[in-house]
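Both lines are retained for reference:
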Amino acid sequence: MGIEQKVAVITGASQGIGAALVKAYRGRNYRVVATARSIKPSNDDDVLTVAGDIADWNTAERVIREGVARFGRIDTLVNNAGIFIAKPFTQYTEADYKAALGINTAGFFRITQLAIAEMEKQGSGHVVQITTSLVDHANSNVPSVLASLTKGGLNAATKSLAIEYAKRGIRVNAVSPGIIKTPMHPAETHAALGAMHPVGHMGEISDITDAVLYLESAGFVTGEILHVDGGQSAGH
């Protein structure tokens, strides 16, 4: 399909939600630029992998540069990379702070700048952030100020960018998950974690990929924070 085949960039793409997003976009016949610290080369000629720490601006620059060199364009960016550190506020360390801001905030900032610059050239594009519903429903059982500080910032930036680029053909949205069954949650924790949602169970990785693909196809939706959280943000 040559230069007209769409291209998605996905961060945090080596496992869990990120790896599922790579498969989901390939299922939509997108070419994919996948990045993560330890990502391995792909056997699929339409998947370019770029290993690196997204907190390092050089990684972001390399991802976009190599993606454009290989595929000729950038149509979608999914800012999926992130870390979650749950601690009482006074126990956070300087290392915790730097890690959260580096990956969750700086990791979003530079690659989004570069991707939008490419999208402007063609007058179309879509950026999606993966945030967290804890931004909207603080929980004393899960003290997580660094997640609220960084991911909450992404929610605000999503709306700001959506308005800034609304007339330039570029949409910006976010998916705000509850607790999702990923390798970071051992099976023995699932019952307790599931009980934290009004629906009584955790979400599946497919719930997040389905939400991202919905936003991808929803041309009249921009500036949306789509909660996929089993009712958490609605109340308790």
User: Anything to note?
Assistant: Strands lie at 7-11, 31-36, 47-51, 76-79, 125-130, 170-177, 225-228. The chain has a mean pLDDT of 94.
